Amino acid sequence: MNFWQNVDYELKYLGKTRKELAAAVGFDVANISFGIKRNSIPYADTALKVAHFLGVSLDYLLEMSESPKKNTENSRLSEIENKLRRFSSSDLNVITTVINALNEKY
């Protein structure tokens, strides 16, 4: 896979879109399509922002390592955090109660 294929893979894993990525990183979503067509990578500062947004290492996106150098637990926590942002205050109270009960169990 190349840089943008790795990005797409991670976006799918996180349930995010290219539009969300572009907004978070500060560039137009058309730049992603342009990068894919040209099989190019963005400037270093943008590539680093992309990696940070996705919670993966830049080495992984650039294929400088054979496997992602991300902590699977941190990635899962990031995924959960993103999903929690959509819940109401009352739903978050219920979730907090469940978490507290589980913490007491373990």
Please render the helix and strand layout as text:
Blueprint: H1 3-14, H2 18-25, H3 29-38, H4 44-54, H5 58-61, H6 72-84, H7 89-105
Short description:
Helix content is 71%, strand content 0%.
3D architecture notes:
The protein is mostly helical and 106 residues long. 71% of the residues lie in helices and 0% in strands. It has helices spanning 3-14, 18-25, 29-38, 44-54, 58-61, 72-84, 89-105. The radius of gyration is 17 Å and the shape is elongated.
Looking at this protein, list some descriptive labels.
7 helices; mainly alpha; elongated
How would you sum up the major sheet?
none
Global structural class: mainly alpha
Number of helices: 7
What Rg, in angstroms, do the CA atoms define? 17 Å
Mean pLDDT: 84
Measured between the Cα atoms of the first and last residue, the distance is 41 Å
**SSE order, as H and E?**
HHHHHHH
Count of distinct strands: 0
Helical content, roughly?
Answer: over 70%
In terms of DSSP E residues, the strand content is under 5%
Tell me, what's the shape? Answer: elongated
pLDDT under 50 segments (min length 5)? Answer: none
